Amino acid sequence: MVQPITAKELEYIADSMSNEDLLLKQNAVLASSSSNQALVQVAQQFISTHQQHYQTLLQTLHQHASMAPTQPQQ
Fold first, then answer.
1. Measured between alpha carbons, how far is 30 from 65 in angstroms, rounded to an integer?
2. CB atoms closer than 10 angstroms to residue 13
3. Given a cut of 70, is residue 21 above it in pLDDT?
4. Cβ 27 vs Cβ 49: under 8 Å
5. Distance (Å, rounded) from C-alpha 68 to C-alpha 16?
6. What is the DSSP track for 4-16?
7. How confident is the model at residue 42 (pLDDT cuts 50, 70, 90)?
8. How much of the chain is helix, strand and coil, in % rounded to 5?
9. How far is the C-alpha of 40 from the C-alpha of 43, rounded, in Å?
């Protein structure tokens, strides 16, 4: 049974998504600016890996969205 995520866990997921996005962007810059084909390939592999991580985190949020409170907590 899936349990609701805590506010701390939500913060962790948001931070992780932000980090994955930054890593995606950094590797995209490397892949587009490098003339070394080996570096381009490695950067592209990292892009794929970080896209998968980001999607996994996003899916986790979607799975828990139905359990989120609809009203602000007081």
1. 35
2. 16
3. yes
4. no
5. 19
6. PPPHHHHHHHHHH
7. very high
8. 75, 0, 25
9. 5
